[in-house]
# Entry
Amino acid sequence: MSARILSAGRTDVGKQRASNQDQFLIADLHKSMLVEESSLKLDCQARLYGKSFGRLLMVADGMGGHQAGSRASLLAIDLLINQLVGGMRWPTQVSADEEMRFVADLKQLFETAHRLIVRESDAHADLRGMGTTLTMCYIIWPQMYVVHVGDSRCYLIRQETVKQLTRDHTLSSHLAEKGGMSVEEAERSRWSHVLVNALGAGGIEVTVEVHKEQLEIDDIVVLCTDGLYRHVKVDEMSDILLRELELAEACRSLIELANFRGGHDNITVVAARCLKAQGPQKTRTIVATEMTLERALGDLGGFEPEINEDSSSEFEVEIDTAEHFRN
# Structure
């Protein structure tokens, strides 16, 4: 079975902060080929893309002061990108035999990023103590793996029910889990801003949380930083995302609401909607100044694929789960 995944993301500095220390990323993983020379009607250095292996969603919320917080969140996503494209095996399906190793690989991505952030923090006095949250989703339809450290959140909206998939790695949440306070008290506590688990932040080790979720058609996945959920209730998030047909507009509305209620922190939201695939068409991926395989075949054979030139961060992909692991 296949699905179309529509995604959009937005970030905003908020009303109280001088700079934005949040980062987000929406990406597809593809096999690709870089053309160096050819007798075909292809530009040199054109990159041709095959089917998508899956969709990646990430949000990060940096901490440690203006420069350090921005550096930590940027470094975390940059380190993951380098590891993701530099050597990790990305499956299009995860068998029961392979799942344990795949989950271990996901955890290792975060653990490696943690060590490198700590190393850079120790090497530069102005970055001492920098750290970041990081929440990542990898969607291999219909499976989704959520990898998480910190107090950014991942929600799953199914029909009108909202489920928080991640735990807040804060002191107040830890106390609530131990029975020291109620969940409601934890939300209002001054300790709700104190992280006990993050990438970097001077920690010797990091505990990486991994969840697996089985997605369904019409599900909506939401990743956000605390600048959003401290101002916007989950039922309000659900109402806006279910009401708005365009995810980019929904993200904009959510940020506007958080700013209207004070905007005390940077605000970031990423949303993905799972839709039924429209027939057997191939994946279309548009990248600035680069060529897709479908467009190249159109140039060579006279086929004119439908190309969406919209430059927004919302796009779609058909993920075919009939393929197997990368070689």
